[in-house]
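Notes to self, AMP-binding protein:
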Amino acid sequence: MAFVGETLEALAKSDPQAPAISCSGRLWTRAAFFAEVLALAEALQTRVPKGARVALCMRDPVLLLAAFFAVARSGAIAMVYDPDWPLERRAWIDRSVQPPLTLEKDSFDDLLTALKDQGPLSQEPRHRPDEADPFYVGFTSGSTGVPKGYCRSHRSWLESFGVSAREFAIAASDQVIIPGNMVHSLHLYGAVQGLCVGAQVDVAERFNPRLVAASLRQSGSAVFYATPTQIHYVAQELRRSGPAPNLRLVLASGAKWRDADRIAMAAVFPVARLVEFYGASEMSFLTLATPEDNVPSGSVGRAAEGVSLSIRNSGGEALAPGQTGLIWARSGMLFDGYICGGGSEIAWEDGWLTVGDRGFLDADGFLFLSGREKRMIVTSGVNIYPEEVEHALVSHEGVALAAVVARPDPIRGSELVAVVSLETGALVSEAGLRRHCAERLGRSRTPRAFLFRSEFPLTPGGKIDLMRLEAELQNSEQVQ
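result:
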């Protein structure tokens, strides 16, 4: 495969009527989906040069995926926009990246309509992409709130496909279930990789635990890409409606799983292999935690195939096993760089990259996370990583989910606030959680306040929306 999506043509020819992708009761065969990709790619090649940036801003995930493959095939760069961005953020990104073409629902239809009188479509890309060419830009929130536009090459994703093939064996016989929209790189990657191997991919316009649970119950040999938070809410639905008996593989990324969650998952996914992977949008896979690895409690696993890891201090010196420092990685899956945004936590050195995550390796090479530089909170002069506090909170048997955020404090500078969701039927008090944290973290790292809520706001990628939690906390205090 020389570029992402090259296999779609051969798959369509080998079995035109095989299902390729479905969404909300609609189904596209391989032939129908590739025809849409081909038509749009031909239109793009007459309008934008190779390497041009094309913004994609669509709510329909099937439309977005067709456009994504078409942009890749045409030799251009697909920039995936979130339709729900505030107007100010969208305007800032447009000014920063200056796309010569933006595809939204209306412009997508206009491009296809314009092709009707152009005769037969070319099967061969006019601007054939090379593996080293950039093809995708995604956006994540930076440490200062400014969006970071990270750029990936065809090769970096093709290398990631190789890891998926060897570690997960996702094949044409599988049904890949994606629970959220394509704005988040986890969902986008899972859908694209599934389509490239010929699997049937089921995508959702937005995360709905009830509908996802129903899809999992009815599926055949299925693979489920999701964040631990999404899995938590889907598992709640499955406990009420019955298990998913044929789900063979659960791939989780985005946060650390609790050991209790792993045990609970076995009840609703009785035959599934549960695999956790840790990485970043800029780095793809870093570590994998599989059932066969005997991963120590609290670890995110071993280095994925082709990945080298190093723990270093702030001066760049390698640290011994057990010592905490910055996580550095080297692989063929690393990103090219930012086209906008970016922060001081990112650093390169001789092919090695760090994005500011901190952790340590044990003597056997298993990685343990401590936190991320961009989330660090300074309170009373102490540097605290919220992830460490969240891990302590969810180790309590009555806590299902937890998030730790900061709020201004005139004396300490900032203070920690823990927001928790309890397990069904659990009776947990603020005093009990404070004791639990103090025993594990000490008083200086124990949150000053504990707030209880039944559900968390989620980002489009299925993670807890920390910025929204902080804003809600601030607004509630202003009202009081």
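- The first helix runs from residue 7 to 14.
- The first strand starts at residue 19 and ends at 23.
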